[in-house]
Amino acid sequence: SGKNTKCNNDTLRLAATFGYTKYKWSPSNNMISAGENAVVFPTQTQWYFAEAEVLTGCTVKDSILITVKTSPVINLGADTSICFNAAIQLKAPATFLAYTWSTGDTTNKITVSAKGQYSVKATYTNGCFSADTINIAKYLFLPPALGNDTSVCSTPTFKIYPGVYERYLWSDLTTNSSLPVYKAGPYWVKVTDKNGCSSSDTIFIINLYNNPASFLPDSLLFCYGDQLLLNPSKVFQTYSWSTGETNHSVRISKPGDYLLNVTDFNACRGADTVKIVRNPSCPDVIYFVNAFSPNADGKNETFRPICYGVPEKYDLKVYNYFGELVFSTSDFTKGWNGAYKNKAQPVGNYVFICTYKFYGSIQTSKRGNILLLR
């Protein structure tokens, strides 16, 4: 007989004297036996017995007491993930005599912030060891980036965008996904993602520049035949007129709305429009063009005199080379589209006669040639 000890879930290998036959081990619980050898793993203190034949009918027996010692379980928790800027405390029970962590620490608890695998082995008062391992991962998180301190234009309202997150908290305690800026100064945001991870950033708006505005008059009077010089009241870095010109000023020769887009020296953009209105004191007049091109390109599609003022009487007739009347109207707003009897007329010269009379003036007739182009 003899005795031995084991800790927790350890196993013990038992070996009986070699050279006998018909080996029998008991009890069979928590045991794996084969011939003279057996592996035992009792959960509590247990006697084990071995029997074998030396000669036929002649047996020998022996026993051994296996004493089971236990130490407290160490549970570092399930594998987990933490935020990119967070740390986690790993803790073993304080009842052990000594601790050895995979980090080299020897206390019963450690704080870690890097991803990886961490393990601890601790020695109990009875000499047994307990151990556990945990894997720490980190959530993917992109911190907010408000950009460098800068100066911005005020219109349209400048907004700060930190990116897409679950929750926002701004320096003015609002919680929208963006923040409009109405004055210079510091602005900060704290964002939180779906995993509960948070981070902050700050930007300083150095200057909030006003965008260019009201640099053209609302309207100007104009008489056909004149040339009017349009000038913005301020100097800018770039100009873009609705006429296609890019100079500081532009000359116009007909009424209408004229738009000017500008960029100032702070890179702020603005736009303004001036309405050029025909002066009612200008003389009534009709101007006749000498060509038109009804080719469906949207330009100069009809032959219609340019009429400034509203005639009291108006009559326009157009004849072809053979003297046929191909178009006539008494409405000064309508023109000939180059067709006769719903058929497009050939390229060439045509003759027009226009008789008209403005209020307070004598009746006048004009005759001329008009060239039809395709």
Question: What is the secondary structure topology, with strand pairs?
Answer:
Blueprint (H helix, E strand, L loop, with lengths): L1 E6 L4 E4 L5 E6 L4 E4 L2 E4 L5 E10 L2 E12 L10 E3 L5 E4 L6 E4 L7 E4 L3 E8 L5 E10 L11 E4 L5 E2 L6 E4 L8 E2 L4 E8 L5 E12 L9 E4 L5 E3 L7 E4 L8 E3 L3 E8 L5 E10 L6 E3 L3 E2 L13 E3 L2 E9 L5 E5 L9 E2 L2 E2 L3 E11 L5 E9 L2
Q: What does this 3D model show about the protein?
A:
The protein is mainly β. Helix content is 0%, strand content 51%. The chain contains no helices and 34 strands. The protein has a five-stranded mixed sheet with strand order 27-34-33-29-30, with no helix packed on it. Strands 1-7-6-3 form a four-stranded mixed sheet, with no helix packed on it. Strands 8-13-12-10 form a four-stranded mixed sheet, with no helix packed on it. Strand 24 and strand 25 form a beta hairpin. The mean pLDDT is 93.
